[in-house]
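In this supplementary section we document a worked example of the pipeline. Step one takes a protein sequence of length 479 as its only input; no multiple sequence alignment statistics are reported here. Step two produces a three-dimensional model, which step three serialises into C-alpha cells for compact storage. The input and output of this example are shown verbatim.
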Amino acid sequence: MRNGKPMMRSSAKALIYRLFIDKFAGKGEPCIGVEIEMPVVNLACRAVEPGFIAAMLDLLKQRFAFTPTRFDQNGFPIEAVNLQQDAFSFETTFNTIEFAMAKKPGIDQIAANFYSYVTALQELAHEHHHLICGMGINPYAAYADSKPLNSPVMLAKTEFLKNFTSHHDGEIFHAFSAACQTHLDVELTQLPDLLNLLGKLAFVDAMLFANSLPFIYAGNRNFTARLPASLQREMAHPTLCFRDILWRLCEAPNVRPYDRDYASLEEVVKHLLDLKIFITSDGSSGFKAIPPVRFADYIARDRWSEADLSCFRSLEPVAVSRHGTVEIRQTCTQPLADSFAPAAFYTGIAENITVASELVHDFWQDNQINISNSQLRRQAVSREMTIPADRLQEFINNLLAIAAAGLKKRKRGEDKYLGRFLKPDHELKNPAQRQLDLLQEGWSIQEIMSACSALDESGNSIWTNDMNRGKGEADGLPV
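The serialised model returned by step three reads:
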C-alpha cells in the first residue's frame, strides 16, 4: 500500500535506482560527509547519569541552536539538528553520542564545527564527572545500561534480535561499539572501481585505525559472564578491532562485506537487490521485525508500502548509501585529536583513485594474495599478517603518500589531518596497538581513556610520550 492505497507491483530494479543509484547524479561540487560516534562514560563506574544526558542537549540547544527533531516514546529528544544541518543524536543507547556532520566541500569546515561542539560537551562532561571517549569500544561497557533506546526503530531492531537471532535479550550488541563513517561523492562511472578499491583497503583501514580492544578495560566477571557464549569465546583471542567481531556475530542482515570485485554498475545494482528487508512498517507510525527477505523478493509481493523501505539500507563495511555516497563504515572511532584522519585518508585516495588502484593491483600480484578482503582484514586485526612487515610498511607508506598527494591536489590544506602518518619516522601502529603499549609502560586505564579523549595532540595524546602522564589525575579522573 502507498498512502493507505494498494499499490501495483513495481520493478525492484527501478526502486534500487531511485533509492540508491540515481542519487549519485547531478550533485555539482563533490562533498564529504562524516559521522562520528563516541562512547560516553560515567567516571564513577556507573551508568551514564540522566542529568548529564539532559545537560548535553540543553548545552547544544542554547549554545549552538540545535533543535530537537526526533523523540523516543517518552517524548525525550534523541536527535537534534542546527541551522548548519549538523545532527546530534543518540542512535542506539544513551551510552553513545553521534554527530552526523552536514556534507561540505572540504574537511576544514566540518572539523571546525565538530570540535566546537565536542569541546563544549567535553567541558560539560568534566563538570559532571563523565568523559566523551575517542575509542571504538566503550571502555566502561561493564557499567553501561545496555537497554536500547525506547524509539520505534530501536524497538523493532530489538524485536528482530529477540525473535530471529540467538541474542534473545535483544540488547547486548547495541551498547558498546563506536565508528567513524566517511561519505564520499563519486561519479557513477567510477562507483564500481571505488567500491573495489576500498574493499581491498579493508586491512589497511585496520592497520591504521583499529581502536577497539575486546573489553580489556571491563574488569568485571559478572559482565563477561552475561555476554553471549560466542563473544566470550572471541574474547579469548587477541584482536585490535573488536567492533568487527561484534558486527560479525550480531546476526543482523546486510552487514557482511562483499568480498568480490564488481565488474560493472549492473553488478552493484544486483548486489543491492540481494540485500535483505527485515524491519518494515507496522501499518501506523511504528515499525516491526520480520524474517529477513531479499529486497527483490519483497518487492515482488502483491502488497507493500513505501514505509516498509524506510529502514532498508546496506550495513556493510563499505556500502552504497541512500544519500548517493560511498559510505566507509568499517573504521573505529579515533582518539578525538585524530577524528578526521580517516576522512582525510579516504578523500585523498578517492582523489587519486587511478594511482591508488595501480599500487593495490601490483601489491596483490607481487605478494600472491589469494584470500578474501575480509580474511586479510581479520589477519591484520589479529596481528597474523603473513606478508613481511617491511613490504607492508612500504605499501602503506606509499598509500599514505598517494592520499596526501590527492589532498594537496584539492588545495584545501587537508593533508594536515593525516598528522602523524606524514612524519618521516612514524611507526605503522594503530591506536589499539598504542594502548597496549601504554598499558605495558605502566599507564593506567583511566590515563589512556583521558589521552584518547584529548582534543588536540599538543595535550595528553596517546601519541605523545609520558611527559604528560598524571594529567588525568589533575582532571579528576580516578587513577
